Give the backbone structure.
Amino acid sequence: MTEIAASSPQTPDHRTDLVGLSRDALVAEMVAFGEKAFRAKQIWHWIYNRGVTDFAQMSSLARPLQLKLAGSYRVGRPSVVREQTSTDGTRKWLLGFGDRNQAETVYIPEEDRGTLCISSQVGCTLTCQFCHTGTQLLVRNLTPAEIVGQFMAARDSYGEWPTPDDGTRLLSNIVMMGMGEPLFNYENVATALRIIMDGEGIALSKRRITLSTAGVVPQIKRCGEELGVNLAVSLHATTDDVRDRIMPINRKYPLKELMAALRDYPAHNARRITFEYVMLKDVNDSEADARQLIRLVKGIPAKFNLIPFNKWPGAEFDCTPMKQIERFSDLLFQAGYSAPIRQTRGADILAACGQLKSDSERIRMIQLKERLADGVKDEHARPAAE
Ligand code: SAH
């Protein structure tokens, strides 16, 4: 494992950040700034295809325009508070966003692809009982700039600019599976993903993007219709009883409604829905559960992803023994479903599923203590669950 310490804190910059504006918003911004609309197209290319952050390097713009732009705008990036690389090549960044909030982003290299796991919120309001992120102190939505910024910061780290051709990309796939519930922050996530999919910039295909949700039923259809990305659903239980207990969101959107929404998911090209299923010893891992799972997903083009539970300090669950996970996987496979067991990656840097936040929390606790010592009352703070 290697670790690179924090970059120096950025000086506050009050210029408007052009990153995170939709294509239309950038056009409107340039027109309001007294420039022709086509400038937006040029600038878009520099920002998202070339990765340029300095207007002086935008060589298709005349020098006076470069200077004028630099007076009012910036091309922002989250600051890299810490970068860690696992012995297995997984890389994790703790990124800082202007207001001292932080989120984590993880890169997982595999033989045929490289997947970036992006966060949608600082912390998470879902409080799934097995997930560490839900115990985080403060929560807020990430902005489009902060969501796209995670991808851009990761690209910076590997020097992957300009945007390479498909097939040669190091960062070839995105999963919205980091901290937070993306469908609770739908508008910002949608704006960010549209920027990432835009053919004249980062140009990542919707087929290479997967959004993972705990089951925010009212937003699922929109996500399919408007974005057309792959959908993953954190199912984790086969009955409302168990799911109510381990995932409180189920009390609002129970299994019946969730499955109905998934049956209707606009599957443009018959892509399958991924069901994530965390293996919790004696909670959801029996053969009866496997059989019930098969009944539940009937009629939905589905595949499974079995996730060995990653334990964290204070967690009340244990992971199902590997032999039993394999048996569970076999049962699903025999029913005709792909059901691989997700390999734990980046465990030595706490980058695995459900582990995101631990490090940032430690830093945040220190910050909170500092603030409290300064006599600043923070009304949003709630005590950590551990
Ligand atoms: N809120 C979204 C995005 C988070 S994805 C969602 O729920 O889908 C993160 C995935 O890791 C989810 O499937 C989550 O349930 C799973 N997870 C959370 N804690 C875990 C743990 N301790 N071990 C293994 N997987 C976990």
Summary: Residues 358-373 form the longest helix (16 residues). The two ends are 27 Å apart (CA to CA). The pocket of S-adenosyl-L-homocysteine is lined by residues 126, 128, 130-131, 177, 181, 212-214, 234, 236, 276, 278, 307, 309-310, 353-354 (CB under 6 Å).
